[in-house]
Design the sequence.
């Protein structure tokens, strides 16, 4: 058919998580381990801050790149967390972390350019870059005895003369890999030398399973005009997925471009949600409580998935996902469909997280613990019942 839909957009593939979830997203019988969220509502104090803002009539336009008081609150939060002093002109508040990524991708890449995505990666990242018209390659983390790691040699080998942007998500959805500070410094140096825009997605910066307050951040390393945008948000650390608000810290000289694009995309995040975000930054005990919940969720996941001999699984260092591999699995989508149909559990198929992941699947362990255990036990039961036919009996 002759269509006015631009080829860049017509060729985009539906995210495989939404594709499976669309089948029964509203069905209360399903235990949803497919999305990146738990089942406990945002803390009451944060919800009350939004209610107060509405009661005060906070319903008007504000600065498209974010309310001044919120930008300053984000500055205060990041300065304290990382021991830095960010120029607030570098901070913007898009109406979701995802929107921040979409804007930043467009800032760095377009037709004729090449972009490199560290994978396995969340599928929306790939689509954001594809929508820019740039050519894309993936540099895949490797899986060793101690879990996932990135080879900087692989990354260097994937660079092209026209590479204009590199995307890295740390802690990583779906693998839970956390990029060490030394590697961050090395990657930053590459980007400085070649004038490549690095987009660092740090939305899981507080979802980490060691003693530190936060995962290593590029913000600790960057100068005001480095070619780096660090994107983050409230969804994961404060359980605020439905609020649609994030933040980004970019080079100081990007400020005008951000302001222009923020106007185009949504003319600023929802204004009373921004008030709730200010209150969230003050509620650090919420972050600590959720972190304890995810830590226990990780233990339960390790216990249940570890009991299944068919699966290869290394507990993640960060984020809140397990990304196990069923060696020989022929179709990760068929696996997700089978588990949904027979066990009423929603999981995400591996194929959607970039090339090379057809034998994998992702489950989110942010869920309340009884439901999580129940869901995981059903997943294992299904795999043990069907492993031979799923893998062609190859194992
Ligand atoms: C790696 C990654 N980046 C960004 C996002 C988007 O976050 P938000 O819901 O705040 O837009 C997600 C959500 O799952 C994610 O996993």
Sequence:
């Amino acid at each position: 058919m002759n269509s006015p839909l631009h080829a860049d957009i017509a060729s985009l593939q539906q995210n495989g998580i939404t594709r499976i979830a669309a089948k029964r997203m509203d069905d209360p019988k399903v235990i949803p381990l497919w999305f990146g969220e738990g089942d406990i509502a945002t803390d009451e104090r944060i919800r009350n801050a939004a209610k107060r803002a509405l009661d005060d009539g906070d319903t008007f336009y504000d600065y498209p790149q974010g309310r001044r008081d919120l930008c300053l609150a984000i500055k205060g939060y990041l300065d304290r967390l990382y021991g830095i002093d960010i120029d607030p002109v570098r901070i913007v508040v898009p109406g979701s972390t995802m929107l921040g990524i979409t804007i930043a991708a467009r800032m760095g890449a377009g037709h004729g350019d090449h972009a490199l995505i560290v994978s396995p990666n969340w599928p929306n990242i790939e689509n954001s870059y594809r929508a820019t018209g740039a050519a894309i390659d993936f540099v895949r983390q490797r899986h060793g005895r101690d879990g996932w790691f990135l080879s900087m040699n692989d990354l260097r080998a994937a660079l092209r003369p026209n590479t204009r942007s590199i995307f890295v998500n740390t802690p990583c959805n779906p693998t839970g890999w956390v990029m060490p500070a030394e590697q961050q410094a090395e990657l930053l140096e590459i980007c400085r030398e070649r004038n490549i825009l690095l987009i660092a997605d740090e939305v899981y910066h507080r979802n980490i399973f060691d003693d530190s307050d936060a995962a290593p951040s590029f913000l600790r390393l960057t100068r005001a005009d480095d070619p780096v945008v660090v994107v983050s948000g409230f969804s994961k650390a404060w359980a605020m997925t439905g609020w649609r608000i994030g933040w980004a810290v970019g080079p100081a000289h990007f400020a005008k471009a951000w302001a222009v694009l923020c106007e185009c995309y949504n003319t600023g995040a929802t204004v009373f949600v921004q008030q709730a975000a200010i209150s969230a930054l003050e509620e650090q005990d919420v972050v600590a409580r959720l972190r304890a919940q995810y830590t226990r969720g990780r233990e339960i996941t390790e216990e249940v998935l570890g009991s299944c001999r068919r699966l290869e699984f290394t507990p993640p260092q960060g984020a809140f996902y397990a990304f196990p591999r069923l060696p020989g699995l022929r179709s990760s989508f068929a696996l997700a469909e089978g588990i949904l149909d027979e066990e009423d559990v929603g999981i995400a198929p591996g194929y959607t997280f970039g090339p090379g992941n057809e034998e994998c699947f992702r489950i989110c362990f942010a869920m309340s613990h009884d439901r999580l255990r129940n869901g995981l036990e059903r997943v294992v039961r299904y795999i043990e019942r069907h492993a031979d036919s799923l893998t062609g009996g190859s194992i």
